[in-house]
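can u do me a favor
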């Protein structure tokens, strides 16, 4: 099994270019089921999760073609074959596979999807997805690990109040309602940039979606949608990760191809911590900063601080001269990186969903184990600032969300390599 080996202490300088958003492109790929015409996507990252979604979609009759690798272009086209089952062997690898449920049900009037897998960071049940689709007339049965759903008369528009803000459920119900007959009013939707990017793509496909409040939309269902060309937004989580690297050990490290409006939550934290950075139109430059303050942070739905940057910001806070805390409000089991960071010399304790980060004089490299995608990359950050060698095991998690991470870091001076 592959490992990443890091010799810490080398400053990072130069340029890192951010790729397309993994969490934006996955639902947009699923949306191709809503049309018989080709959907052309650009700025698609070359990640394991993208390959997994391609395989899931191809098993349902979607033809895919990757072209012009330098620009990361992907074309997907649904051929509407008589297949409506997403098998366990594919879905178990990635939780985002459940995003095919809404569009497949809308097109085929029935769908069977294995309960999804992915990172072990909490239960993340799909009951919110199911409850919302029931409001559109779907019927559900859980049988031997599969969610079997039918809508014999097709989906019908309705008023839907999501009982909890959920990115995946919002995306699923928006896609399904786009082909439902009549009007749907959906309340309490997620407004993450990735959801907005999906809505933008759907509107270019002919879907009629209008915001009538901060978290309320109206959708006029259509009989069919058309193909489109769509450029995927930059990945704000990848950007935030490398921004934190710059704050930890940067020497005028430039992070380019970012969308500053999507980064305001982390920029607010950087300003509070007095991090050295210079923000430009689509880039940001950072240098190592001595942190003299502690903060109390909590993860929240967008526009709050993202749970997907919680593990990474914890590494930065461990270098402060004052105590900080983080309350994790999104996932109940997302502190699994803490024991690994403590093995490297961090001083972090956990009280329920709250972590308390005390000052640590120096981190020491050690063999560590990655437990999920974002925990994995927090160990990379810790390795970059540690004394000696850090060996990160189970790095397949990293490949799900970070494209060529060792190449991007080594080109900026980091001593990092992949080995078997």
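np, heres the sequence
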């Amino acid at each position: 099994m592959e490992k990443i080996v890091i010799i810490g202490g080398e400053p990072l300088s130069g340029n890192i270019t951010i790729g397309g958003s993994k969490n934006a492109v996955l639902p947009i790929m699923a949306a191709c089921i809503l049309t018989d015409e080709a959907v052309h996507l650009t700025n698609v990252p070359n990640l394991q999760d993208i390959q997994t979604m391609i395989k899931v979609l191809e098993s349902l009759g979607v033809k895919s073609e990757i072209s012009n690798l330098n620009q990361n272009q992907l074309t997907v086209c649904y051929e509407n074959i008589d297949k409506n089952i997403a098998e366990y062997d594919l879905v178990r690898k990635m939780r985002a596979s459940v995003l095919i449920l809404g569009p497949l049900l809308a097109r085929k009037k029935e769908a069977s999807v294995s309960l999804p897998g992915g990172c072990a960071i909490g239960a993340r049940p799909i009951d919110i997805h199911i409850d919302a689709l029931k409001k559109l007339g779907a019927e559900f049965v859980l049988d031997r690990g599969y969610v079997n759903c039918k809508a014999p008369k097709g989906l019908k528009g309705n008023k839907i109040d999501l009982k909890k803000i959920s990115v995946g459920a919002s995306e699923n119900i928006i896609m399904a309602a786009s082909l439902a007959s009549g009007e749907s009013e959906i309340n309490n939707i997620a407004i993450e940039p990735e959801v907005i990017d999906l809505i933008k793509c759907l509107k270019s496909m002919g879907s009629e979606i209008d915001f009538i409040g901060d978290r309320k939309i109206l959708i006029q269902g259509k009989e069919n949608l058309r193909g489109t060309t769509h450029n995927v937004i930059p990945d704000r989580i990848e950007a935030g990760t490398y921004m934190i690297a710059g704050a930890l050990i940067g020497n005028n490290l430039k992070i380019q191809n970012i969308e500053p409006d999507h980064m305001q939550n982390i920029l607010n934290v950087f300003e509070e911590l007095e991090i050295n950075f210079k923000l430009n139109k689509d880039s940001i430059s950072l240098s190592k900063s001595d942190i003299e303050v502690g903060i109390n942070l909590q993860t929240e739905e967008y526009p709050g601080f993202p749970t997907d940057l919680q593990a990474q910001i914890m590494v930065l806070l461990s270098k402060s001269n004052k105590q900080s805390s983080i309350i994790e409000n999104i996932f109940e089991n997302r502190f699994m990186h803490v024991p690994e960071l403590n093995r490297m010399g961090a001083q972090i304790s956990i009280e329920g969903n709250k972590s308390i980060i005390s000052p640590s004089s120096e981190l020491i490299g050690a063999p560590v184990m990655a437990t999920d995608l974002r925990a994995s990359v927090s160990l990379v950050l810790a390795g970059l600032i540690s004394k000696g060698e850090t060996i990160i095991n189970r790095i397949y998690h990293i490949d799900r969300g970070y494209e060529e991470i060792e190449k991007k870091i080594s080109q900026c001076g980091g001593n990092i390599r992949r080995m078997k």
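The radius of gyration is 22 Å. hope that helps!!
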